[in-house]
Each structure stands twice: as C-alpha cells, then as structure tokens.
Amino acid sequence: MAILEAKRLTKIFGSDPKKVIPLLDKGLSKEKILAETNMTVGVNQADFAIEEGQIFVIMGLSGSGKSTLVRLLNRLIEPTLGEVLFRGKDILSMSAEELRQFRRKNVGMVFQKFALFPHRTVIQNIEFGLEVQGINKKERREMAMQALELVGLKGWENSYPEQLSGGMQQRVGLARGLANDPDVLLMDEAFSALDPLIRKDMQDELVELQAKMKKTIVFITHDLNEALRIGDKIALMRDGSIVQIGTPEEILMQPANKYVERFVEDVDLSKVLTASHVMIKPETITLERGPRVALQLMRSRGISNLYVVDKSMKLLGVITAEDAAEAIKTGQSLEEVMLKDVPTLSPDTVINEIFDTISNTKVPISIIDDNGRLKGIVVRGAVLAALSGNNDLEAGDSV
Amino acid sequence: MNLPKIPLAEWIEWIEDWLKLNFDPVFKFIKSTIEGMVNGLEFVLLGVPAVALIVIFAAIAWYLGKWRMGVFTLVGLFIIQNLGLWDKTMLTLALVLTATIISVVFGVPIGILSARSDRLQKVIQPILDFMQTMPAFVYLLPTVTFFSLGVVPGVISSIIFAIPPTIRLTNLGIRQVPSELIEAADAFGSTPGQKLIKLQLPLAVPTIMAGINQTIMLALSMVVISSMIGAQGVGADVYRAVTQNKTGVGFEAGLAIVILAIILDRLAQNIVKKSK
Question: Which site among A37, A222, A311, B250 is 20 to 30 Å from A23 CA-CA?
C-alpha cells in the first residue's frame, strides 16, 4: 500500500473557493477561472500515490503550484477539496491535536530558505521537533546528535546558524527534519538556494542517505536535472495540474504531451542517461566450452568477439575470433588466450563519464554490477545515438 | 442652520459620576496597590545609604555598558546627592518604576493578544492613538476624581501616557517574526503556546525592550505634570520653581531629571544589547 496518497487534492485561493469547484469539474483552465471568478487555482485535482522508501519528485516551474501542493500534504495550507491519505488515514479529517501528533511523529520538513531559528544553536534547532513533543532533555540531545552526525556536522552543535555557510545551514535543516525519525520527509526546493557544486554534493548525499535510511521523500524542485538525478518517480506540474507522473526514464523517453516534451528537450542527456540506458545484450560463452565452440558461435552469429563468463554471469574476459583460431592451432584453452584486461563500468555511470573510457579503448565497455556480473556492453555508436535522441539501437550495429 | 451643541462635556461628567458611584471599591483597590508599590520601592531606595546605592548603580551601568557609562552614572548621581535632591529623586524613580512595571505587566500581554488577532489590533490602535495625543492634563482631572490627590493619580496618568509604546512594539515585534519560521514551527507540530514561548517572544525581545525603554522615558516626562496634582519628587520642585519664578532652583531639579533620564535610557538600551 502507498504510504502517502493524494486524491483530487485541490487548493483554490480566493474569497469563495467552493464556487470554483463546478468550474473545475467542467475542465476550465486556470486562466479562464481567474478571469471569471478572480480566484486562483493553486493545485488542481492532483492524484498520486507515493510508495514507501521512494524519492518522489514534484517538479514544475515557479507558479506551477508545487510548493502549495507539498504544503497540502501536511496541511500547512488547508486544502479546498480532496483527500490526503497517510497509510490509509485521511489527514484532512484529523483534529488539531491529531494533526499536531502527525506532524510531530510522521512527517518532517526541510525548507528552501532553511528557516532555521536564529536565536537557537545548531543542536537546539535540530532538537526543536523533539522538544515540542516533550521528550526529555537528555534523550532529545542524543537523538539530535545522531541526526547531526548523519549530515556530517559533528563539532558544530554549539554554533549559531548565521555562523554557517548556506550548504551547512541546509544540512542543519535536513538534520532537523530527520531528528524525529519521520516516515515521510517533505523537502521544498531544499537545494535551490545553494551553489551548483554544493547542490550536487547535497543531492548525492541525499540519495546516499535515503539508501541507508529508506525514508520516503517528497522532493520539490524546479530543476529537471535535479529531478532526474534523485527521483525514483517524478510528477511534472503545470498551472496547478499534474501533467505526467513517471520514472525519470519514462518522462524523458515518453513525454505525455507537448509541454513535457518541450520541458525535457533542453535536458543535457549526457548527464542524465546512464550506461544502463544504452547498453546492449552481449553474446557470452562459458569458460569450459573451449575455443572451438567459441569460434563456431561467432561464425554463426556473424560477430568477432565473445564475452567469457562463469555460470553466475560473472565476467572473466573477452575472446576474439583471431585468438580463438590461434588457440585451436596451438591447443591452448580459452582461459589462456582470452583478453582479461577488459574495461568495465557500473550501470549507474552517466554517459558523460563513459566518454573518457570509451575513447581510450577498442573493445566495447562491459557493464558489470557490484558483484562483478555482466549486465551488458556499451558500444561507441550506441552512446552517440542515445545523445542524438535516437534510442532504437540494434545490437551489433556498430560493433 | 443652527444645530444645538452636542452635550459631550455633560456626558463625560455623567459617566465620571456614575463610575465614581458604582466602582469605588475597584478604585480603592487600585489606589492601595499603587501606593503600596511606590512606598515599597521608595522604602528600598531610601533604605540603602545613598553612597552605597550610587556605587551599586554605577557598577550595574559599568557591567551592562562601557566603563564610560559607569563613570557617568557615578558622577551624575553624586551631583544629585550634592544638590540635596537625593530623596526626592529616589521618590521620582519609585514613581517612574511603578508606572513602568504596571505598563509592562499589562502592555506586553495586550501586545501579544493584538499580534494574534487583526481585529483586536484594529480596535486597540485608535485607542492607543487617543491615549498618546489627548493632552495629559485632561486625564489628570478624572484620575483625581477617582483616586483623590497624591501620588496615585500621577502614576495612573503616567501609565495612560506611557503604556502605548510597550503595547505597540510588543505587537510589532511578534508580527515581525518571519513567516517561514512560523511555518517551520508549525510543520514540526508546535502548539500556539510553544510557538509563542520558543519562537515569537525570544525573537521579539529586542523590539519589546525598545518599547519598554520608550515607556520609561514617557513616564519620566510625566513627573512634572503629575506634581500639579500632588505627586511629590523632583518634578514637584520644578513645578514650584516655575510658579515662584526661581530659575536656579528649577534648573537644579531639571538637571536631576535629565541625569536620571540618561541613566535609565542607557541602562535599558544596554539590557537589550546584552540580551541579544
């Protein structure tokens, strides 16, 4: 079951929001409604379900309603219509006290401009959520110190926020959001105010942190590259409506409409696509088959080399047709003649970084996972084709 | 066209009589409370030998501010003592402190309430304007009716005149807390009370202290006026000098008020700086 679910979630800003609902049902646009009623559609009937442990990115340009949407999820802004279900329980029907408990225990938040309390030290900031819960001083200090270590700021606990750099301040913000160990962490443009280099570090760290802690994260951003880098699922918003929800790959490869298409047009694919997107299935052979079988296989398939693997697909080396023929003549085994020094990369390597390796080698690059298993190979032509937007590659085309 | 005059003066006097008739116990209670406070403070201030108190004040000024402030306090208070105005100045100080304490006790909560409700702020704002612009002499009269002559109507008039800055700046200080911080406090599940204690009040302290500082100054500026209805102290000396055309005596008493004002002002300001 989804941990957090929105159903027809809607926010209208204006004097009499209920009046707008029938117009929404009729499918009128945001501009039309504004012209007719002088009321603004902040979020228009958003539907989505977030699975436990996902990084769910809500992405859109400024004014698209993404910051409003995230505030509807913990009722910092009161929705006009719809439902927000946390583990199946509707938070819109919660009393003020229930809502407070929900905010204290289940959901943390990180803000764009950090929103640290200037009169409190770093550790007091991180403690805040625990303090309002009434956790005793010793216990909450311990929990806060753990969160502080998690974001790598140990030793800064007694500094004041103004003494820290922007990146460090947002680490404090992150630690504050994580201190009460919430089920869901809401991050509203959390990295947008940071320098590009620091932002990239923070993105990496967040992904790492998430892998470790398995938090469900709702991440708001206006930066598509950021969305593609960290998102497991991306919801693209425009004028208060969600235009498309999908994995980063789906958004890139199958844009739902012209808007999304134009959006992703400018993406630097070399920084987004990874080896796993462009790799093809290699022809393999196991070691004990010997050179004769290898040569036969190559002939029948019309290829010039084979990847030698063991039974669990662990990569051992590469054998070329000439080497195989040579081995048959001299009576050597596959193991003796195969090329063992094969260039390898992990499936998560972005294409940008593949370039360096690929230009220094004649053989295709092998893509292997953490256990050394062969997942695929990347050939030069496929990389170039992917960058030009043509993804319909056929194995062997440019080998 | 000749409309008859609205009998505003008659109405006000009718209300005054009605209050006097029906709320006498309340006024008696207020009177004895204020008298008690003034007498208590005066007892403490005059109970300590003048020299000792001067040194204590100078030490506090030095601790809160710079050494120059300490020296000024020391010299200034010795001048007052030397002019033979020490007892009267301490009575004036007791009066001002009483008015200030009562102003803070009522002003800060009223300021907090009006920061929380736009409607209340709209009601309070014109009342404060009225209290500050109505000439102080005008409400000397009813206070005398309710509390008879002496120190109490002086303190009451001082409070009416001096409380608005505390209310206004408390209201302002709390409203100035950035909305994103309020949002953050909400997002972590604070109750309204926790928000006030842990976030709004601490951030508003410098602004509130600036308001209290103004309240002290305004209360001090009322001491001469209060002396017209029988409040004693250095203010009474100034008033007497004016009526008897004695420039020198008037200047001496005036100087004592100025010294007291500067010391109180700098002390209050430095408390703000220390608290930051």
Answer: A222
Q: Are residues A226 and A284 in the same domain?
A: no
Distance from CA of B249 to the nearest CA of A (A): 49
Structure tokens given for A298: 């190559």
Are A180 and A256 members of one domain?
yes
Q: Which of B181, B191, B202 sits opposite A100 (nearest CB)?
A: B191
CA-closest candidate to residue A46, choices A236, A232, A220, A225: A236
Q: Which of A67, A106, A110, A117 to mutate to probe the B interface, most B CBs <10 Å?
A: A117
pLDDT for A277: 74
Give a yes or no: residue A253 inside a domain.
yes
Residue B187 has its nearest CB partner, among A76, A131, A133, at A76
Q: Which residues contact B215 (CB under 8 A, 6 or more apart)?
A: B100, B103, B104, B107, B162, B163, B165, B166
Give chain A positions within 8 Å (CB) of B203: 118-119
In angstroms, the CA A358 to CA A53 distance is 35
Task: Determine whether the interchain pair B187/A74 forms a contact, defined as Cβ–Cβ distance below 8 Å.
Answer: yes
Task: Kindly report, residue by residue over B39-90, the tens digit of the pLDDT.
Answer: 999 999 999 898 999 999 999 989 887 888 899 999 999 999 999 999 999 9
Please write the tens of the pLDDT for every residue from B13-43.
888 888 888 888 888 888 899 999 999 999 9
Give the CATH number of the domain where residue A353 resides: 3.10.580.10
Q: A300 and A324 share a domain? A: yes
Tell which A residues from 171 to 200 touch B, by Cβ distance under 8 Å.
176, 180, 186
Q: Give the CATH number of the domain where residue A159 resides.
A: 3.40.50.300
Task: Tell me how many domains chain A contains.
Answer: 2
Are A203 and A186 members of one domain? yes
**Mean per-residue pLDDT for A157-175?**
93
Which member of B183, B189, B198 has the closest CB to residue A115? B183
| All domains of chain B in start order, with CATH | 8-47+83-275 (1.10.3720.10)
Tell me whether A98 touches chain B (CB under 8 Å).
Answer: no
Interface ipTM: 0.78
Give the pair of three-digit tokens for residue A132: 């309002």
Do residue A117 and residue B186 have CB atoms under 8 angstroms apart?
no
What pTM does this model have? 0.75
Structure tokens at A193: 């105010």
